[in-house]
Design goal:
Layout: H1 25-47, E1 52-53, E2 58-59, H2 95-103, H3 106-115, H4 146-167, E3 177-178, H5 179-196, H6 199-206, H7 216-229, H8 232-255, E4 262-264
Antiparallel strand pairs: 1-2, 3-4
Length: 265
Amino acid sequence: MTASTHHPGRADTAIRTRRTDRWWLPPLLTFLGLTAFVVYGVVRVFMNKWYWVGEYQYLAPFFSPCVTGGCVPGASHFGQWLPDLGILAPPVVVLPFVLGFRLTCYYYRKAYYRSFWLSPPACAVAEPHGSYTGERRFPLILQNSHRYFFYAAVPVASVLTYDVVIAFHGADGGFGVGLGTLILLVNVVLIWAYTLSCHSCRHIVGGRLTHFSRHPVRYWMWTQVSRMNARHMQLAWASLFSVAFADLYVALVASGAITDLRLFN
């Protein structure tokens, strides 16, 4: 892998970098992590089965909300207001908004710019691109739509929260807790933490304020979001793996590969 080190406006050097540490490790791990998630997501969506456990009311996060006519009985908590999409699995209704929120996220931009595009792969390391236009042209100008994807991410997180509430009630209407219930609960907590720590959320609750002292409620909200925002990277990864793990757990239970560990019914 070669890289040009003669870019207009940048210092010329005969070597790619003077760094002696393992600068290539973080982008490599990011590449492997994101690739693994994408592969799992594609396989899971086109599998289009094993996403509902009626006995314990578990709905896999990748398939929530399930609103098409092709959804299995009981999985449609909000009705089936779309026809059966045939070979298109139910997630195609919601995943574009979820993926749009992740892809335009400020942290994920940095992550896949460095790991997939090598632009640049690390600080003080030359990149293999001869030009740079920023995010001013198509398609990267679409990154500016992040705030609008945030508006879509909030109802999606709300739906996942409702799914957790349903999971605390068995098919007979009683109250129960299983390992799957706790996994879904942890996942939705991480999803909310990632969503609310978003830079767009921080601007919405505290942006355009000249005097914080005149808006104590919004200032308090801005302070709380700012604290979470400092951990946005960690929350991004934690929520990414938690949603995949929760989805996989439901799939394994639904397929009969494993039995849900019930704490009490």
